[in-house]
Amino acid sequence: MISTDTICLIGTQNSTGYVYRNRQASSINCVDALSIVLTSGSYEVSMTLTRGSAVSALLISLLAIVILGCAAATELGDESEPDALVVFASTSDIGLGTARIPLNIRMIDGTSFDDQAARLEVTYTAPNSDEPLVVDDLTWRVWPVRSGVYTATMNFDDVGLWSIKVRVRNDDSILPAVSGVLVKSATDAPNIGDPVPLTATKIRPEDGNLRSITSAPVPDPDLYSISFDDAVATGMPTVISFSTPAYCQTGTCGPQTDVLSELDEKYKGRANFIHVEIFDNPEEMLDAGDPSIGIETPIIFEWEFYTEPWTFVVDGDGIVAGRFESFVTLEEIEGYLLPILDDA
C-alpha cells in the first residue's frame, strides 16, 4: 500500500513513473505498485514535471480520484449519461497547516464550468472522518491562457489522503465531483513560515546577453538585476518565480514572468522581483532547437520542488509569506505582498 509520504506520478506514454519517498525520487512501475490502470481523458493540467522531464505525468489529483473510486462515469455506463462535474486539485506538495489549493473544475465531457464560484459548494474531509469542512473563499481566477482556475484555502490537521467534493448548489441534475489531495507531515518546498534557501541566482551578464540565463522570448532585464540572496539582504520583500517560459508545457510560464514585470513596475523600489530559469543552459537549447539537452539548474534541488511554475512571496527576513504552485495571478500575489509592504 502506498504510504502517506509517497507520491506516484503516472506516465502517459508508458507505465514508468516516479515515487518520491522520504524526499528522494526512485523510478518504479506505478501500474504494478498501485494495481490499477488509468484511462485519461482530454483534461488539461496546469503544472509541468521538472525532474524526470522525459516522463509526461498526470497530476497527483488524478491518482487520488482513482484511489477514492470516483470514476462515476464508468459505473454509470455509456447509456443516457447524466451531466456531472469533474475536479482536479492541481497541487503536488501539501503539508500540515493552511494551503492554497488550485481546483480545475469542468464538466465530465471536458467542457468548461468557468466563473461559477457562487453556484458551487466545495467541501473537504480528513482521512477516516465523515465530517466535511466547508471552503468559504472559493474564487475564480482568470488566466491569460487556458481560461482560468478556481482557488480555495484549506486547513489540514492530519496526514493522509483528504477527499474534496464539489457540487452545484440547488441543482441535482449535475452530479457532484470528488477528488483528493495527499497531505504530508511537511512540504518539500519551503512552506509558509519557513526560512528560504539564500540562493545566489543568475543576474544579467556584463555583455547583456539575457538569452544565456533565461528562455523568455523578450526578457525583462529588471527581473535579473539582483541575486536572490542579495535581494533578501536589502530587507525588502521579494517575489521569486521559477519557470521556463520557452519550454513550459502548460503555456503559463511566459505569462507568469509578465505578471512579475507588471508587479515590478507597480512596486519598484519597495520590493524585489526575480525570475529564475529552470534550465542552466537556455541559450544552448534555443540555438539547437532541442529541449532534450537542457540541464536543470541546481537551484530547484535546493528549493525541493518537482513541478513548475512555482512562485514565492518572501518577507524582508527571508521567511515565506506566500507560496503558489502553478500559475498565480497578479491579484493573488498582491494579497500576500501588500500586508508586508504595509507593515514596513
Question: What does the model show?
Answer:
This protein is of the alpha+beta class. It has two domains: 8-184, Sandwich (Immunoglobulin-like), CATH 2.60.40; 210-343, Glutaredoxin (3-Layer(aba) Sandwich). The protein is built from eight helices and 19 strands. A five-stranded mixed β-sheet has the order 10-11-7-5-13. Helix 5 links the parallel strand 15 and strand 16. The radius of gyration is 20 Å and the shape is globular. The termini are far apart. Residues 1-62 and 69-78 have low confidence and may be disordered.
Major β-sheet strand ordering: 10-11-7-5-13
Gross morphology: globular
Determine the mean pLDDT.
82
> What are the segments in which pLDDT stays under 50 over at least 5 consecutive residues?
1-62, 69-78
Give the helix/strand class: alpha+beta
User: Which radius of gyration do the C-alpha atoms yield?
Assistant: 20 Å
Give the name of the CATH superfamily of the largest domain.
Answer: Immunoglobulins
CATH topology of the largest domain: Immunoglobulin-like
Considering DSSP H and I runs of 4 or more, what fraction of the residues is helical?
10-25%
Distance between the termini: 49 Å
| Architecture per CATH nomenclature, i.e. the level-2 architecture of the largest domain | Sandwich
Strand content: 25-35%
